[in-house]
Amino acid sequence: MKEIPTRFLALAAVAALFGMIWGIQMSASHDYTLSPAHGHLNLIGFVTMSIFGTYYALTPRAADRPLAKLHFWIATAAVVLLAPGIVIAITDRGELLAQIGSLLAILSMALFAFTIVRYGVGPFVAAKTDGQEN
Ligand code: HEM
């Protein structure tokens, strides 16, 4: 298994590739019906995954925790379910998948917020007054 930053950034790049091809397909066909799904694939898939991956690369003590693996799988499930879920919702075939994807996306962001507060940002930990590290 690859390291956490590599996993996040590799998935981000794959999402961007699909998202951009999708954008070109929309432009070529002049059919923009699914543009919200394209936008979410790029933003949830590429932008947020890239930020998560960069954070974990900067903060190895957070990347080494089991929570980081859980975060990766929840964030991945959010991308994989949300983009098709929006397509299905836009084409009036139900909203369940988009709803599940949205809940996973918000759970992923909540885990990210918790991780930042718990482990901080960057490779160094602030020394406590007794001289011990966190
Ligand atoms: C090859 C690259 C890309 C192409 C050809 C492309 C193309 C498009 C097209 C044709 C639209 C629809 C515009 C309209 O409805 O008038 C669109 C919408 C959008 N794109 Fe892209 N795009 C690309 C990359 C990206 C990236 C990298 C992001 C974000 C990081 C992004 C985010 C969005 C968003 C947020 C929308 C608006 C969605 C909405 O209206 O609901 N796109 N794009």
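^ protoporphyrin IX containing FE complex. The two ends are 27 Å apart (CA to CA). The mean pLDDT is 94.
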